[in-house]
């Protein structure tokens, strides 16, 4: 630490509730398996195994399959799953997957019955056998497992920003360069949310009259590969309920809605390619679909094995597959089921660099997951709600790896439409897309390392008896939750930049970096200018990531005595300093004193732009946008919002932030009327980077007080992907409070919460300059200020945000007791 600086802790005394207007609170044994269907929210249950409606992409277990007690490891000497003997006791036959010690044992095993499916790499063969065949398999020393080839059921708007994907997108991390494999009910390949990015297709759809199963492949065969073979919008799948599941899952993982009206903005990894694999068959018997639910779609384990092998072949041939998504399953497993025939296929993919992401299931089990989620090498995903609570239907327990949103998720469905669905089926593709983003960001890390990153950087969700991380991609990437443009050293925590004007005419920019505990560290000099180079009183400071490289940059408008105005930017360098100012715009018609700049990514391209509220002398007002260029400079401005009368910037407190969660920063203005009324407006950003001419009205008060009692900043203090506005309010009697205003779905800021309060005399608003950022790197924005004491000392203070969006007691960071004056320092703020 440099001489003259120290970091200490505040007394942290709690303050009484300050006076003022009334406040509102804001907000075992292996069991016989039946074919698998996509996992979704259960609507009815016939047995212990959940029966899921095909309308939500889920199908019931057959009436014949009564699950036994939770699985325990089967004896090594008994490779045949015991319920199979009962199923064949009357002379019947059953589909089985036979796992052998090695592929050399397969030929002998195949003599026990008729071969239904063989595999290229796995020591597995699918047979149709009777009781004598089971006896023959049990007697063969090379056979290690015989289980039924069971058919199982299939198990975004706000969810994409909630998991931090929007922050990743603005950093240019969209999953480009990777592909995700969707093993499901096929994909509507020409849906506008997915079109142009389906790079491979195949159909594995077994036919078996004994199971009432027919093919969903376009040509009616059990296996078909090539363009159109997994298209669920055509062929046998088109008119079948439940076949929309795979399209919905694919949209969550990698949908792209750019330029399409009325759609979700995107899936998690809109830059990733998609591999569509149909692994379901059509079933017409209520014994498998459930009473009144036939026909339905279910997936045989053998079909999944064939598809997993297809993914492996694609990977080995150079297709950059990062994850295979299985939003399907059934059963109740409290321990790992590594005798499952899918274990070897999942292991092979992991060795090749491909994760297998599996939905946990929707039975609401508190200590178990379904199969294949029980395979120890699978990445198992449960579901959360919009407010980061466990979804009521989600399975959980010791086998659960991650959580992701799975309630009310809007995504693509066949017919070029969109629909909301619930289920761990919807949670799993959030993780699949996240892995594509991480592969782009960390090309040299193994897939096991990427999985570990998701586990160790997610938001902890605490529930009865356990804590499981909900994925937070922004945090995993090492970027602050709400202010990526103020991380000047790329360490994943926000920093603060200050301009210091020395008495002798010199000027310098200092960087105060955020520490692991959220305290701001002693500053370093990032730029210094000799006397006479700049006139501090003629600068308006801005900050943001102007070139989209993930490091915060600084800039300023400079007004000259000639009437000329210039815009300068200083790009951050890898060594922690700033480049010399570079001019990118000059004008002689603008008046420096009438310009009021704010920064944010207003067009959602990953680079921070500049919005200037121009307060004309004739009483009219306009908002101009300067779009950032890839080189960190700015294009010439254009205007969008304008008013000829009724507004004046001198009555406004203006901030920037993404209030509606669409990936574009908006403007928010607290306006103080001459009548004493106060209104909080949102100016939504458009795709062009301009602003909607119809602003949104949120909080309104006639008892708030004056502009001189208020300081405002924006930040995502609760980490939900949408920025709140925080107002520091001086009650006039010495007490102070920080009040936050939360946005509704459209971005209007209305819900009011007291986030922190101080007793009389503790702080003086006139002695602080407020800002916000994620100073401890936990994915939530915090509050910070530069504070000037009457003794001449200056100090950086932070208030760390809690999960509910309230603020902890302040903690003091770097302090200078002599030599620097508060009046000579200014903060670079967005």
TrEMBL record:
Domain (Peptidase S8/S53) spans: 175-458
InterPro entries noted in UniProt: FG-GAP (IPR013517), Integrin_alpha_N (IPR028994), Peptidase_S8/S53_dom (IPR000209), Peptidase_S8/S53_dom_sf (IPR036852), Peptidase_S8_Asp-AS (IPR023827), Peptidase_S8_His-AS (IPR022398), Peptidase_S8_Ser-AS (IPR023828), Peptidase_S8_subtilisin-like (IPR050131)
Alphabetically, the GO molecular function entries are: serine-type endopeptidase activity
User: Where is the sequence biased in composition, kind Low complexity?
Assistant: 62-71
Ranges of Pro residues compositional bias? 11-21, 72-82
Annotated region Disordered: where?
A: 1-36, 62-91
Question: Where in the sequence is the active site?
Answer: 184, 245, 425
Sequence similarity: Belongs to the peptidase S8 family.
Name the PANTHER family for this protein: CEREVISIN-RELATED (PTHR43806:SF11), PEPTIDASE S8 (PTHR43806)
Q: What is this protein called?
A: Putative subtilisin-like serine protease
Organism of this sequence: Streptomyces clavuligerus
């Amino acid at each position: 630490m440099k001489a003259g600086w120290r970091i200490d802790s505040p007394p942290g005394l709690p303050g009484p509730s300050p006076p003022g207007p009334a406040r509102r609170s804001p907000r075992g044994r292996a069991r016989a398996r039946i074919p698998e269907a996509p996992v979704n929210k259960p609507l009815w249950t016939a047995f212990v195994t959940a029966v899921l409606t095909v309308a939500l992409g889920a199908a019931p277990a057959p009436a014949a399959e009564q699950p036994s007690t939770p699985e325990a490891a089967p004896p090594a000497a008994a490779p045949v799953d015991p319920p199979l003997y009962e199923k064949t006791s009357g002379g019947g036959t059953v589909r089985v997957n036979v796992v052998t010690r090695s592929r050399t044992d397969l030929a002998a095993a195949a003599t026990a019955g008729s071969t239904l499916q063989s595999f290229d790499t796995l020591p597995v063969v699918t047979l149709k056998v009777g009781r004598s065949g089971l006896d023959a398999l049990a007697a063969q020393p090379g056979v290690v497992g015989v289980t039924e080839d069971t058919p199982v059921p299939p198990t975004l708007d706000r969810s994409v920003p909630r998991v931090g994907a929007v922050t990743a997108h603005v950093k240019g991390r969209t999953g480009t360069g990777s592909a995700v494999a969707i093993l499901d009910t096929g994909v509507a390949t020409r849906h506008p949310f997915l079109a142009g990015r389906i790079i491979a297709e195949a159909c594995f759809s077994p036919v078996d009259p004994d199971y009432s199963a027919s093919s969903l492949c376009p040509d009616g065969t059990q296996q078909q590969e090539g363009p159109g073979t997994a298209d669920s919008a055509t062929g046998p799948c088109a008119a079948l309920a439940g076949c929309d599941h795979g399209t919905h899952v694919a949209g969550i993982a990698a949908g792209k809605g750019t330029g399409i009206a009325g759609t979700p903005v995107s899936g998690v990894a809109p830059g990733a390619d998609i591999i569509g694999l149909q692994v379901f068959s059509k079933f017409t018997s209520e014994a498998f679909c459930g009473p009144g639910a036939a026909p339905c779609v279910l997936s045989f384990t053998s079909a999944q094995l064939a598809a997993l092998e297809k993914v492996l072949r694609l990977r080995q041939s150079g297709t950059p597959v990062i994850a295979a998504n299985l939003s399907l399953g059934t059963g109740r497993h409290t321990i790992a089921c590594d005798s499952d025939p899918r274990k070897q296929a999942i292991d092979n993919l992991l060795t090749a660099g491909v994760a297998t992401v599996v939905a946990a299931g929707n039975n609401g089990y508190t200590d178990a997951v379904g199969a294949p989620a029980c395979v120890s090498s699978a990445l198992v995903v449960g579901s959360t709600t919009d407010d980061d609570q466990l979804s009521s239907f989600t399975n959980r327990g010791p086998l659960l790896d991650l959580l992701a949103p799975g309630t009310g998720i809007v995504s693509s469905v066949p017919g070029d439409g969109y629909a909301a669905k619930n289920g761990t089926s919807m949670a799993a593709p959030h993780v699949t897309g996240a892995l594509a983003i991480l592969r782009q960001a960390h090309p040299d890390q193994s897939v096991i390392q990427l999985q570990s990153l998701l586990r160790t950087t997610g938001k902890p969700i605490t529930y009865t008896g356990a804590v499981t991380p909900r994925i937070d991609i922004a945090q995993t990437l090492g970027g602050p939750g709400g202010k990526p443009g103020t991380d000047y050293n790329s360490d994943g925590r926000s920093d603060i930049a200050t301009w210091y004007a020395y008495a002798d005419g010199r000027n310098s920019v200092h960087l105060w970096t955020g520490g692991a505990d959220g305290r701001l560290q002693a500053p370093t000099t990032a730029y210094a200018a000799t006397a006479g180079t700049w006139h501090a009183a003629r600068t308006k400071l801005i900050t943001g990531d102007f070139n989209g490289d993930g490091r915060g940059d600084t800039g300023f408008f400079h007004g000259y005595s000639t009437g000329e105005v210039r815009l300068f930017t200083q790009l951050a360098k890898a060594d922690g300093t700033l480049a010399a100012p570079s001019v990118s715009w000059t004008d002689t018609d603008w008046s420096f004193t009438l310009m009021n700049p704010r920064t944010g990514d207003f067009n959602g391209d990953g680079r921070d732009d500049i919005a200037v509220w121009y307060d004309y002398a004739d009483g009219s007002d306009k908002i101009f946008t300067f779009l950032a260029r890839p080189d960190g400079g700015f294009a010439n401005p254009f205007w969008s919002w304008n008013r000829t009368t009724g507004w004046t910037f001198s009555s406004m407190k203006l901030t920037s932030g993404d209030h509606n969660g669409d990936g574009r920063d908006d403007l928010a203005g607290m306006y103080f009327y001459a009548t004493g009324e106060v209104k909080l407006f949102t100016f939504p950003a458009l795709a062009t980077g301009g602003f909607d001419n119809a602003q949104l009205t949120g909080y309104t008060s006639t008892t708030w007080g004056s502009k001189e009692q208020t300081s405002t900043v924006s930040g995502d203090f609760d980490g939900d992907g949408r920025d709140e506005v925080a107002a520091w309010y001086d009650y006039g009697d010495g007490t102070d409070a920080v009040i936050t205003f939360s946005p509704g779905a459209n971005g209007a800021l209305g819900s009011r919460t007291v986030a922190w309060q101080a007793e009389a005399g503790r702080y003086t608003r006139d002695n602080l300059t407020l800002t916000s950022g994620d100073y401890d790197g936990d994915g939530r924005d915090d509050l910070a200020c530069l504070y000037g004491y009457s003794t001449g000392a200056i100090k950086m203070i932070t208030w760390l945000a809690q999960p509910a969006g309230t603020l902890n007691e302040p903690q003091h960071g770097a302090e200078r007791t002599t030599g620097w004056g508060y009046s000579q320092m200014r903060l670079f703020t967005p």
